[in-house]
């Protein structure tokens, strides 16, 4: 059975901070915070759709700092979600939320757990305190560590979110952030390359020339390395890049945004793995076995991977093998 999220956006209402990059209403595409009754209606409507597609879902409160919104409002949303889970356990398998690391404490976790919360994602963004300070996050890396430990202690699934290319960031800081996420026992990770939006502090810094973010090529190379790190640690990266959005495209001044970013990064991962394995095997001609779903990523956009491997003296043919991610043999 497939699994997905039914996302409920609660834009910006729970956060007193205005980070340098933040425009949650543009990112979420939502303006009005939903009422509990609107959430109930949404969840009722989704029941037959999910059943038809043989899919179960977590109800996911995203878009702001969920545990920072008014307590009564938060509880009303939790009640609506919990009712749906109890009424339709064949469809709804839990509740998740995203929040700030400094908006987690034992009392808050008591409330979340009492309504059946199954996963909490923390918008850590970076584990470098200078990057956090420059981007006016209002919390420290230690706050992330403290909140993560409390979440793990409750046996909730821990999600950690990071951004790349923030003001003052460096690729090595991103790698260090990933290393600390792994050490904290993250169950899932989201990676968001920075998108610079008009009307934000980052937008001002970018237009003044004071801030330069990572290029598209640098971001693809970096994120490919991050994917390999998390894969080696058996931590799923459940999102890479912002969702496709006309609002984001309209307000974007710079940074890295592409509707197919994940596929481009995964294609880079395949290239790196093929190059390493072909060098290890020796020779010049190879047979690459893979599941049909991977062929486009192995060949690369506009055959980029094939051309780069050819330039390194390697040629290959692809043979499909159901369920195989990547297996390479010397061609006879």
How is this fold's topology laid out?
Layout: E1 2-9, H1 24-28, H2 36-52, E2 55-62, H3 71-87, E3 92-99, H4 106-114, E4 117-125, H5 129-134, H6 141-153, E5 157-164, H7 171-183, E6 188-193, E7 195-197, H8 201-208, H9 216-232, E8 237-240, H10 246-251, E9 252-255, H11 261-281, E10 285-290, H12 295-299, H13 304-311, E11 315-320, E12 327-330
Parallel strand pairs: 1-2, 2-3, 3-4, 4-5, 5-6, 6-8, 10-11
Antiparallel strand pairs: 7-9, 10-12
Helix pairs in contact: 2-3, 7-9, 9-11
Describe the structure.
- 44% of the residues lie in helices and 22% in strands.
- The strands form three sheets. The chain has a seven-stranded parallel beta sheet with strand order 1-2-3-4-5-6-8. A three-stranded mixed beta sheet has the order 11-10-12, with helices on one face. It has a two-stranded antiparallel ribbon with strand order 7-9.
- The longest helix has 21 residues, at 261-281.
- The protein is globular and about 70 Å long.
- It has two domains: 2-259, Aldolase class I (TIM Barrel, Alpha-Beta Barrel); 270-330, no CATH class.
- α3 (71-87) links the parallel β2 and β3 (92-99).
- The chain contains 13 helices and twelve strands.
The CATH superfamily title of the largest domain: Aldolase class I
CATH architecture of the largest domain: Alpha-Beta Barrel
Average the pLDDT over all residues and give the rounded result: 94
What is the H/E string?
A: EHHEHEHEHHEHEEHHEHEHEHHEE
* Strand elements, count: 12
Q: What is the fold-level CATH name, i.e. the topology of the largest domain?
A: TIM Barrel
How widely separated are the two ends? 41 Å
What helical percentage do the residues reach? 40-55%
Which geometry do the CA atoms define? globular
Low-confidence stretches: 26-30
Assign the CATH class of the largest domain: Alpha Beta
Biggest beta-sheet profile: 7 strands, parallel
